[in-house]
Amino acid sequence: MDYSNIDRRSSSNKKVVAVVGGGLVGALNACYFAKRGFQVEVFESREDIRKAKIVKGRSINLALSHRGRQALKQVGMEDKIVSKGIPMHARMIHSRNGKQSAIPYGKKGQYILSVDRANLNKELLSEAETYPNTKMNFDHKLLDWNAETGAMTFIGPEGTKEEIQADLIVGCDGAFSAIRKQFLRRSRFNYSQTYIPHGYLELTMPPRNGDFTMKPNFLHIWPRNTFMMIALPNLDKTFTCTLFMPFEEFEKLTTGDQVIEFFEKYFPDTIPLIGVEALKKDYFRLPAQAMVSVKCSPYHLGNMCVLMGDAAHAVVPFYGQGMNAGFEDCLVFNEIMDQLKEDFSAVLPEYSRVRVPDDHAIADLAMYNYVEMRAHVNSKWFLFRKHVDNFLHIIMPRTIIPLYTMVTFTRTRYHEAIKRWHWQDKVINHGLLISATAALLGGTYLLVKHPPNISQIPVDHLWTRLQAFKPF
Asked: Which residues contact 467 (CB under 8 A, 6 or more apart)?
């Protein structure tokens, strides 16, 4: 096996940044570092997805919101990506009897965007390549790296070993990060990995007569308490449907007829939209996939390496913030680079200090939102509180801000959004309790002061009214 030692640093006075991982966060990071003038080397273990006939990997639709858009804006990519997304203004809740009801995401004009993961990745890679100081290295699998020297060993496309030197290593290589393995060998590094008991399976809802089969500007949800299905629109007029369910429930469905029977019971309105035969085929095309939540801290090792995106904080997809949080990582790091004059020895620990509590917070929120999406949206109290929160936000926009608004339509730090949410929840609940108590006491007072003269009502009429009375 050939072995070559390449020190990219010798060719330029500017520091070399090695971005390991050419996915969404890695490609965006390459743009950020290249824009600053660093020599950027991107290493991706897979082939170039822009040339691949079949793009492997996850295909859950992505929901682009404010944080992600702000990160794209800094490298001039926001408008291009937004133009290829589909606005979703509200959740569309589908009940078992076919009734549909919309729950807006925010104020009028606020929306999230359904974007295609593969297309977004391709656009970011192409943008990174527009910088002359960026070099793409596909089919390069990381074998090992040295935190003291910045040396990395890769196996290249021809099976040759290459050793690369860099001044900064940026680990953007996903939830099962090879870069992060070096962190695990160090003391005082905290790490946890949790698989939730639910998996996901994707189905496709084709267009009908060249158009969408459902209203396109919504995130459609079929909440069924212990599980749910969602559907997001695509530019080709299809919907990508994702069924989230406990693995043991997936395992119960072993034949096409059982699948149809299951859908007739829980999602009857989707069967004619997906198609019976297509449903039977799609359901067994791939097994249900697992979802993992990863937390770790710190995100840096010395002044040589930093983790971003899923490598630092893989989150379950139920708040639509995985990509947005990863993109915001790039933006926050860039802001700290400005503050601390690109001094890696100061930037890296500050990035960990600032970012760890926020990413841990969104990981927890993503877990919570699964319960909200599959169960709480069926609750009348939940819907009532949504209306109350939105009404109070309209009349007191700076005092009361719904949690979803803070997370999705602002850059309020995730952990601060949770703190504010808990405070607002207590205030509003106490206010509702006081209002209800006041109304009850006021009603009682009026009855005492002005009692109804029931003696004038015939007994048979009174008995009929009592029988007709229903408390709920």
From this structure: none
In this structure, the number of other CB atoms found within 10 A of the CB of residue 200 comes to 19
Contacts of 470 (CB under 8 A, 6+ apart): none
Answer whether 110's CB lies under 8 Å from 409's CB. Answer: yes
Residue 379 has pLDDT above 70, yes or no: no
Extract the tokens encoding 425.
Answer: 């929840």
Strand boundaries in 254-329, DSSP class E? 289-297, 300-301, 305-307
Q: Which string of DSSP letters, residue by residue, matches 167-198?
A: SEEEE---TT-TTHHHHHTSTT-EEEEEEEEE
Which of 171, 150, 189, 177 lies closest to 306 in space, CA to CA? Answer: 171
Task: Phi first, then psi: give them for residue 98, nearest 5 degrees.
Answer: 95, -5
Gap between the Cα atoms of 41 and 69, Å rounded: 24
Residue with tokens 């790490």: 191
Instruction: Return the closest-CA partner of residue 7 out of 163, 170, 179, 153.
Output: 163
What is the C-alpha radius of gyration for the chain, rounded to an integer number of angstroms? 27
pTM of the full structure: 0.86
Indicate if the pLDDT at residue 445 is higher than 90: no
Higher pLDDT, 388 or 116: 116
Report d(CA 339, CA 329) in Å as an integer.
15
Q: Is the pLDDT of residue 291 over 60?
A: yes
Distance CA 142, CA 163 (A): 10
Residue 195 has pLDDT above 60, yes or no: yes
Handedness of CA 418, 380, 240, 214 (dihedral sign): negative
Q: How far apart are CA 197 and CA 227, in angstroms?
A: 11
CA pair distance 104, 88, nearest whole angstrom: 9
